[in-house]
Write a structure and sequence with these properties.
Shape: globular
CATH topology: Rossmann fold
Radius of gyration: 18 Å
Order of helices and strands: EHEHHEEHEHEH
Largest sheet: 6 strands, mixed
Strand content: 15-25%
CATH class: Alpha Beta
Bound molecules: flavin mononucleotide
Number of helices: 6
Number of strands: 6
CATH superfamily: Flavodoxin domain
Oligomer: single chain
Structural class: alpha/beta
Distance between the termini: 12 Å
CATH architecture: 3-Layer(aba) Sandwich
Length: about 220
C-alpha cells in the first residue's frame, strides 16, 4: 500500500488557489496509485500550537520524570508529524505567501517536525523522498518586476525542503493569484491567465513524476 502525505496551509480553504493546484497533483498521483492512502494535514483546521516547538526543544534538556505536560504533549505531536513524513512514499505541500514571508502555520509545523531525531540535522529519513511544493503568490515577484526580491517565502521553502531535509523536490509556483480579486491588478489579467495555465501544467507533470518515482521504487 502506497501513501501520499498532503499538507495544506491556506487560511482561506474555500477559495484556495494552492488547494486547487495541489488537487491536480493529488489527482495525478491517484491515477497511478488508485488504492493508495492520502494522509492529510490541514494547518488551517488544526494549527500546531505556538508553544509546542519551545516545549519540544526544552524537553531535550529536561529529565524525563521532570517534563511538564506541555513538553510531553509537544514530543508526542512532533513524533506524530515526523511519522506522517517518514511513513509516506511521497509528499505534497501547498503553501501560500503571506505578508512577504512564509506562512506562520507552515513554519510552526516545520519547526516542530524538525525536532524529531529522524529528520533533524543528523537525520536522513527523508533523503531522496519524492515531493512537490505548490506555492501561490498574490503578486508577482519575478525578475524585473517592481517588487522583485520581496517574496521571502519560496526560497526558504526550497532551502529547508530540498537542502535541509534532502527531499527530491519539485516546485510548482503560481504568481498573481490576486488578479481578478484586487481591481488594482486588472491590467495583468492576460499574464495572470498564462501563469495559471503554466502552473496547472507543472502541477500535473509533477504529480505524475512523484507517482512514477514511487511506482519504480516499489517495483
Ligand atoms: C493575510 C494575507 C496576507 C497576504 N500577503 C501577501 C503578500 O505579502 N504578498 C502577496 O503577494 N500575496 C499576499 N497574499 C495573497 C495570497 O498569497 C494569495 O491570496 C494566495 O492565493 C493565497 O493562497 P490560497 O489561494 O491558497 O488561499 C496575502 C493574503 C492574505 C490572506
Amino acid at each position: 500500500m502506497t501513501t501520499l502525505f498532503r499538507l495544506d496551509a491556506s487560511i482561506l480553504p474555500t477559495t484556495s488557489s494552492s488547494r486547487e493546484l495541489a488537487d491536480l497533483v493529488e489527482k495525478e498521483w491517484l491515477s497511478t496509485h488508485p488504492t493508495s492512502t492520502v494522509v492529510r494535514r490541514d494547518l488551517s483546521v488544526e494549527p500546531i500550537p505556538a508553544t509546542a516547538w519551545a516545549d519540544a526543544v526544552t524537553s531535550n534538556f529536561t529529565p524525563e520524570a521532570e517534563r511538564t505536560d506541555g513538553q510531553r504533549a509537544a514530543r508526542a505531536l512532533s513524533t506524530q508529524l515526523a511519522d506522517e513524513l517518514v511513513d509516506a512514499d511521497a509528499l505534497l505541500f501547498a503553501v501560500p505567501l503571506y505578508n512577504y514571508g512564509v506562512s506562520q502555520h507552515f513554519k510552526t509545523w516545520f519547526d516542530l517536525a524538525y525536532t524529531d531525531p529522524r529528520i533533524d540535522p543528523q537525520g536522513t529519513a527523508l533523503h531522496g523522498k519524492p515531493a512537490t511544493l505548490v506555492t501561490v503568490l498574490g503578486g508577482n515577484y519575478a525578475p524585473g518586476t517592481p517588487k522583485e526580491g520581496w517574496d521571502h517565502s519560496t526560497s526558504w521553502l526550497r532551502r529547508v525542503l530540498a537542502d535541509v531535509w534532502g527531499l527530491d523536490l519539485r516546485v510548482v509556483e503560481r504568481p498573481f493569484t490576486l488578479v481578478g480579486v484586487n481591481p488594482a491588478l486588472d491590467a495583468f489579467a492576460e499574464v495572470a491567465a498564462d501563469l495559471k495555465q503554466t502552473a496547472e501544467t507543472h502541477a500535473v507533470r509533477s504529480g505524475r513524476e512523484i507517482a512514477e518515482l514511487t511506482a519504480s521504487a516499489s517495483s
